[in-house]
Specification:
Helix content is 62%, strand content 14%. The protein has 353 residues and is an alpha+beta fold. Strand 6 and strand 7 form a beta hairpin.
Amino acid sequence: MTLRRQIDVRYAGVAGVCGLLILGLIHHEFFVEPRLHCASCPKASGWMLWGEIAEVLLYAMMPVVLGVGWWLMRKTLVPIDALAKRIEHIHARNLHTPLPITGEIEEVDRLAEVFNAMTARLDQSFRQVQDFTLHASHELKTPLTVMRAELETVLRDSPSLTSGRRDWIHGLLDEVQRLTKIVDALTLLAKGDAGHANLTLRPVRFGNLVRENYEDALILAEPHRLRVTLRECENLAVMGDPHRLRQLLLNLTDNAIKYNLPGGTVTMSLREVDGAALFEIANTGQGVPSEIGARVFDQFVRGDNARRRGVEGSGLGLSIARWIVQAHNGTIRFSSVPDGETTVVVRMPLARG
């Protein structure tokens, strides 16, 4: 129960008790005592009646006082309610924006100051993590590039290598490429969180990109014996970066294929809904538990099913997808049914004109 509700209930209880007391007083003063006084002294009954009325009116002021107190108490809680609403809108990207200090209520201002100090420390910690990720990913790119070049040189310039040795070097190359993809993804997310990832926005035929992605999905799904269907694809245009939009579609399609059942299906569609482009992709997999689904867009989040089945991945694909969608002023939604369909819906505003 909220503090405001507790105050309302307690005031209502006190007011109810006062009302009952006043009703008992009215009955006693206007019905019981007049009969007694009339029987003992009939001449004084008129003056005594006015006195009883004045006394009852005095007692009747108690509910009025309680009502005024209730109104003042609710008015006092308004700054706390306003502070709570401002706190609800705080997230990782606006921690540097302090809460206002009104100067009206000292306790509320003190609470705002303490909260501002806490968000400032959190903002500094997040910035340190972003800087570390950017610097670490930048420093890792060079040695990974060198390792890849040296391994490729060994394969090219050493024809006498045995087949076992060549397989071993190919395995190293695969791991180097996997690390490179992870480093590139971390770099993109760190730049996006820091506001350093610039997008080239222009009118893009999103329908064409979806059709190209559908053709790529047919190739990717063939080894897994999956059936890919493009239910509908309207000729819609959005303001966006073509490279990032292709990356978005490829990430979602890659997830829909990897986290699927043998012989399953992947369906996708693009249509206009309420003046926006709505892209939907669904697959038939084992589903995602609700506790994982709530964090599916966080970095490095992977379900137990993916680990048990040995599905390759780093848990960054949906994080990148969310960043790309948000950078295009869109929204992305994830839903999953255990042993049923898993659906991702992307909504982005259409290009004007």
